[in-house]
Amino acid sequence: MTITKKLILVPIIVLLVVGVSSTFMLDFYLQSVWKQRVKEELSGIAASAMVAVNALGQDADTASLDALADRLGKSSGARITFVDGEGVVLGDSDLLLEELHQAKSLKSRPEIQSAIRGGYGFNERYSATVDSESMYVATQVTSKHAAAQREPAGESRFVIARAALPLSSIEKSIAGIRWRYGLIIIASLTSVVLIALIASRLLARAIANERKGLEQRVAARTKEISLLQNMSGLLNACTTVDEAGKILKQILPQLLPEMTGAISIVKSHRDKFSVVAHWGAEWPGMESFESSQCWALRKGHYHTSKEQETNVVCEHLNDNLQGEATCMPLLAQGETFGVLHLINAASHASDNQFKIAISAAEQIGLALANLHLRNDLRQQAIRDPLTGIYNRRYMMETLQQEFSRAKRLHSTIGLLMVDLDHFKRFNDTLGHDTGDLILKRVARELQKNSRAEDTVCRFGGEEFCLVCPDISLENAQYLAEKFRKRIRNLDIRINHKPIDTVTLSVGVALFPHHAHDADLLLKSADEALYRAKAEGRDRVVVSLVNKSGVKSQFLLI
Predict the structure, then answer these.
(1) Which of 276, 345, 357, 479 is the most exposed place for a label (fewest CB within 10 A)?
(2) How far apart are CA 62 and CA 180, in angstroms?
């Protein structure tokens, strides 16, 4: 059963039950109480008749008693009868004066007998005169009269005043009350039905509106959850901070509409933050700031500029900032990776917007932590821990990629194999710490003096390798000579004392001149390096191997 039907049926059923039960109660009341009330009224009428008879005094003859009965009957609505001690009718409001002599004696009536014996009588019985059940109350009163002229003059006789009322008039009054009560019940029932119908319609409309609002809220929450999940998935798939910034710039305006926002990421300097993405209106703040300029970073949790009737704005935001600004640190595993900035120009952010912002900040912090962790692991996997340059594994991957690109674009690849001369001597005489220092300085010089597109890596031990895409053989040889001279001129000191000159030998090979694949090119450059070592070190030698791996004198430079 629907709520609407319940709203209509339940009040009707309740009202019907109340109406039926109250009807039975009313009948009981009318049967028990109403008759008692009528009896009391008849007693009062009889008592009034007694007073009136006493007021007649010596004038209380049959004519005057009959006239008195007529007056009392008209005023009270009851039948008034006066009888003497023998039951002779002396006056009756329903009989004419001429009919009194023909009236039968009423001495046998129970109420008359009770009045004669005790002064008061009551009875309910059928009356042939009015052809209905009637209620009778009789009262005795002493009076002097000569109505019947059967007693000596001046002798005292008692008169019985009887008041009667047909039970049909009582039933008629009861029926009127019942009708009025029934009309009240019907009117109440109709009112309840109308009120229930109106209330059901209003309730149905309110339920429909609430359901519509709830569906809209559910749809909005579902969209927000979907956007948060999509953002989390995309952020976890990003490989760089720039990619993460582009993703956030697309999704956060949908999660936090009508807001201006930005994402600041911590840079290599742990105290420096830079804005990598912003959306909405023009960003009213610095593009780069220090942690001391942001209250959220100083507090360790979010900071809202307009909070508890204060207006404390972070230093990295403009002083004339309009609206409310909120900064939320992007935290994960106890470390800060950035800050989420939100500016609501219209008013205070709602609780739902604030919860979404907190959820977004948590997911962004975790994603940045994972990104940093992946980058750290990747750097550890591809970089040499001592020198910080790429390792042999990364060099081989890069070489394969460059070969694919060079074959597609019909370009060249230069490969330089570099080896430090007599490096074991430095380790043996000066110690491994000095050897490590020399390796670091050489790696730094190679990286600093190479081209931006070149890949510098540590091949192993004191041996380095450079992959140089899009280079001619002459330029590759020139670059190798440049390295050789720079390393030879290095000023390396241990405890303020210079060490012996560091020299290196370089082997140069070029695709497609000396090899047609990566392995053969590496082998050609390595062969050239051995020749440089064999010819006295501290020199640059170009490979003498052609594509097929056969040495050729025609490749000498």
Answers:
(1) 345
(2) 44
